[in-house]
From TrEMBL:
Name of the protein in question: Uncharacterized protein
Residue spans crossing the bilayer: 12-34
Taxonomy of the source species: Bacteria, Pseudomonadati, Bacteroidota, Cytophagia, Cytophagales
Species in which this protein is naturally found: Belliella buryatensis
UniProt keyword annotations, A-Z: Membrane, Transmembrane, Transmembrane helix
Source species, domain of life: Bacteria
Length: 50
């Protein structure tokens, strides 16, 4: 599906915009997942100490 999007005759600016959007979405999802993991592990470690 991504190959179809990038192979279709869109303006280079639109292709670059789509690529940037995909990268930002990926980074945002990765950072949020890291935040969730860190908060969960912090809660677990605090519970273990008590």
């Amino acid at each position: 599906m991504l190959l179809q999007i990038f192979n279709s005759p869109i303006e280079s600016g639109a292709q670059l915009f789509l690529l940037i959007v995909c990268i930002l979405i990926g980074l945002g999802a990765g950072l949020s997942a890291i935040d969730i993991r860190s908060t969960l592990f912090k809660k677990d470690s605090e519970e273990d100490k008590h």
